[in-house]
């Protein structure tokens, strides 16, 4: 069974954050939430209260771009670039500011600020061809193991799960084949767990499509693919062919049958239900805003 969710690496309290001990999402923000050693540490930080900044704003820059500041300082990306947005993305900047306004505490986790992390990733991709190459390389294997290309045995759940997969997955697969001009192979579990692999030519066609994406779209595709375990769903989400809810329902089909049979596990199924939709909605916003 394919894993259904991404592991979440916790990071330490903001007063202890550093580039060495912070999680990969928040390490780029350490400059903001960790005071410079040469600066006077405020009593608020020493007491470990929920927030140390008094000012949170969207700031217009002299070159026409915009940024989000905490305590007068710009957020920074994981790659240590200032988190600067073009003026055309001002609504996105206000959404980033809102994420920080509603943080319940500075005990940050990778999923605490999904839009901020996506924007950070997009900026890093735009600054480095190597980062762009690595992002595409990391998600390309999902075109082989795509959640929509793995079909359960015909007798699963008295045949109802396989029938639902055939009904829901096949039309999306057909659309994907037309979209990329490829023929996608799927794995039929009735024939054994033999793995699944696309041809080199078809993989190259999909890869070249990924290289046409803007940094914003690629960051959204990467997150959506990792969240859903489906390259097809990620691609169709950022292109507007599927909504976040539709993607969540497609990749959560097997879980739906499990819950119907065994019941819901509190603080697991219910949390995953909301978490995947939040991440997918963030990806959709970033790609299309």
From TrEMBL:
TM segment ranges: none
Coiled-coil positions: none
Keywords, alphabetical: Chaperone, Mitochondrion, Transit peptide
Gene Ontology annotations of biological process type: mitochondrial proton-transporting ATP synthase complex assembly
Claim: Mitochondrion is one of the keywords in the record: yes
InterPro entries to which the protein is assigned, alphabetical: ATP12_ATP_synth-F1-assembly, ATP12_ATP_synth-F1-assembly_N, ATP12_ortho_dom_sf
Subcellular location: Mitochondrion
Domain of life: Eukaryota
Keyword Protease tagged: no
Main location: mitochondrion
GO CC list: mitochondrion
PANTHER family from the UniProt entry: ATP SYNTHASE MITOCHONDRIAL F1 COMPLEX ASSEMBLY FACTOR 2, ATP SYNTHASE MITOCHONDRIAL F1 COMPLEX ASSEMBLY FACTOR 2/ATP12 PROTEIN, MITOCHONDRIAL PRECURSOR
Family assignment from sequence similarity: Belongs to the ATP12 family.
The name this protein goes by in its record: YALI0C19448p
Protein species of origin: Yarrowia lipolytica (strain CLIB 122 / E 150) (Yeast)
């Amino acid at each position: 069974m394919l894993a259904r969710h991404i592991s979440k690496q916790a990071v330490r309290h903001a007063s202890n954050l550093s580039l060495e001990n912070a999680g990969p999402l928040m390490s780029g923000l350490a400059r903001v939430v960790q005071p410079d050693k040469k600066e006077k540490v405020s009593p608020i930080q020493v007491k470990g209260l929920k927030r140390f900044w008094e000012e949170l704003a969207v700031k217009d820059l002299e070159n026409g771009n915009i940024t989000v500041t905490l305590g007068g300082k710009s957020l920074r990306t994981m790659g240590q670039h200032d988190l600067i947005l073009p003026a055309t993305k001002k609504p996105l900047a206000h959404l980033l500011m809102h994420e920080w306004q509603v943080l319940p505490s500075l005990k940050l986790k990778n999923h605490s600020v999904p839009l901020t992390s996506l924007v950070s990733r997009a900026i890093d991709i735009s600054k480095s061809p190597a980062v762009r190459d690595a992002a595409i390389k990391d998600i390309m294997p999902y075109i082989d193991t795509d959640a929509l290309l793995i079909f359960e045995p015909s007798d699963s759940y008295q045949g109802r799960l396989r029938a639902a997969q055939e009904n829901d997955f096949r039309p999306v697969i057909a659309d994907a084949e037309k979209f990329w001009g490829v023929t996608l192979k799927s794995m039929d579990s009735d024939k054994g767990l033999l793995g699944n692999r696309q041809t080199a030519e078809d993989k190259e066609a999909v890869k070249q499509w990924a290289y046409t994406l803007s940094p914003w779209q690629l960051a959204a595709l990467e997150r959506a693919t990792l969240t859903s375990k489906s390259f097809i769903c990620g691609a169709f989400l950022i292109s507007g062919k599927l909504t976040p809810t539709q993607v969540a329902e497609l990749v959560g089909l097997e879980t739906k049958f499990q819950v119907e049979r065994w019941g819901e596990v509190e603080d697991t199924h219910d949390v995953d239900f909301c978490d995947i939709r939040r991440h997918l909605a963030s990806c959709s916003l970033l790609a299309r805003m």
